[in-house]
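User: Hey, my collaborator sent me this sequence without any context and asked if I could get a structure. I don't really work with proteins. Can you help?
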Amino acid sequence: MLNDASPNKSRRDFVKQTGLLAGGLLTAPLLSRANYFAGSDDTIKIVLIGCGGRGTGAATQALLSKQNVKLVAMADAFRDNLDKCHTNLVNEISNTLGADVAKKIIDVPAERRFTGFDAYEKVIPLADVVILATPPGFRPIHFEEAIKQNKHVFMEKPVATDPAGVQRVLATAAIAKEKKLNVVVGLQRHYQNSYRELFKRKDMIGDITSAQAWWNNDGVWVRPRKYSQTEMEYQMRNWYYFVWLCGDHITEQHIHNLDVINWFKEGYPVKAQGMGGREVRKGKDNGEIFDHHYVEFQYADGSILNSQCRHIPGTMSRVDELLIGTKGKIHCNAANITDHKGNVIYQFDKKNAPNPYQVEHEELFAAIAKGEYKFADAENGAKSTMTSILGRMATYSGQIIEWDKAINSGLDLHPKVYDWDALPPVLPNADGYYPVAVPGVTKYV
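Assistant: No problem. I've predicted the 3D structure and written it out in structure-token form, which is a compact way to encode the shape of the chain:
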């Protein structure tokens, strides 16, 4: 995190200045009134792009921050998603802060509700802060446009689904830094007090020699195909099961655990090998993703992360991280540090700890309100996303995949055209089943 701005700078001056700091990287026009804080100079206008469950949650947390935040526009591929999200937001804010407050801070009339693939282009100009919560395949495009238009950003993880997308986010992250635009990524363990305190004390375990990470549970929803849907609409509705949209569950969910290990290691893996497949996800509605991955990541110092994620009902559930050092162990979910005999040498008290999902918004909006530049999460978000993609490439291929070759591979999984009648990059066969990666046959680099 960075803090280069004077705390005495006014909020209006800060928002204006951020649009003028592009330097030679990107030509930034003088900001219109849409880029200034509205009303009495302290209202922070937000727009929401992606109106599913996580988008609803992120917008709620932004509105519940201690700053003067107002939601002024919404965008989603589908109008039913958008309207449901709006209703849920109004109900949640009304129940928490009262109906009168909800009317004031949720100001999204019909003319500022946009749908379709290009909806993001219509809402970004209206914002001071853009919330990006669509399926992750669209994150590089939306992030690039938000930074181009000089907006602060909260974006959910992961930030891409392929190496080409990661490279695009890394390039945009550099521009965001140059413009001093705050960017927070929804890897919320960085904003969770227990993890922060464990990180401060990681030297208690000496040099980290190995680690383990788990995201094992039953899995998520399935949305069956409807008769009237085009193939593009079906995949968009059932996005979790298509790699170009989701990245597979190793990327969409297990990124949290992989990111923790990267954070504590203060680096990223140099190569990976692993195994995976489909034991229960074998139906037509299960798209192309695996239901289990086991990956051995190796860091530059030779230390190993053994990583597993599984979506199989009835099996052991665990979402956790363990770091092993020369002097002891960090048990992340238990929030403690032990020596090698099992004696607890530090215990964080999780009682009354704040919700990290709320903390990330509190800290972001507090910085913006004070005219501070503090958050530059996009680069780490991109590299932890790439860590998960590296693991996926290893399990899909069954080969040893090196970081440098993978990130520079140019692999781009996305369609050339975004349109409801366009064909997505992966299609079902005559029997309705999608092609699935085969270890030993699927090739990458």
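In plain terms: The radius of gyration is 22 Å. You can pass these tokens on to your collaborator as they are.
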